[in-house]
Design a protein that fits this description.
single chain; mainly alpha; two-stranded antiparallel ribbon; 10 helices; 57% helix; 4% strand
């Protein structure tokens, strides 16, 4: 269906604005092109796109996304952990070159790349506490939040146990990929 479009994060770095590729074009691509087009949908995890090739043709973008989520959910625990660890810390002063284009845009739109000293210190303390407890960065779909709600989620999720927080991080990755 040509009316359904998927935004391609793989092009975001160069243009800083996602290009659109029709679903019918994705369904018709050779496997290498399909993977190249979708490789950035799940940050630093082209294996998700690779595992969805055999499910083509997808009738809707939602069906393609659902298939990718299923691949992520069925991955081995160590693969899921690597996927979670591939996400940047929020509000840190990492060099912009280390962030994907999508992460730069998402964090920039919420001003997480321009925090004042007090907010920066709070994010730093929460990032450290979170990473110490869970062993991976705090992952949240930034576009669904404000800075204040992210901080509330940070604090609430620090109360989770490891299994619950790993599941929450994967759910958030699915929302980010959408």
């Amino acid at each position: 269906q040509n009316q359904s479009f998927l935004q391609s994060p793989s092009r975001t770095m160069a243009a800083m604005a996602p290009a659109k590729t029709s679903l019918s074009a994705l369904n018709g691509m050779v496997p290498a092109s399909f993977v190249a087009e979708l490789a950035g949908v799940f940050e630093h995890a082209p294996w998700v796109a690779e595992a969805t090739i055999s499910g083509r043709p997808y009738l809707t973008v939602a069906a393609l996304h659902d298939a990718m989520i299923e691949v992520m959910r069925r991955a081995a625990p160590e693969t899921q952990l690597a996927l979670i660890k591939g996400h940047p810390e929020l509000g840190s002063r990492v060099r912009r070159a280390e962030l994907t284009g999508h992460s730069q845009i998402e964090q920039g739109e919420l001003g997480l790349d321009r925090l004042g000293p007090g907010e920066f210190d709070r994010f730093t303390r929460l990032n450290e506490a979170y990473r110490q407890k869970f062993g991976f960065p705090f992952v949240i779909c930034v576009r669904r939040h404000t800075r204040a709600s992210i901080l509330r989620q940070f604090e609430a999720r620090l109360g989770h146990d490891a299994d619950a927080e790993r599941a929450t991080a994967l759910t958030e990755i699915g929302l980010i990929a959408r």
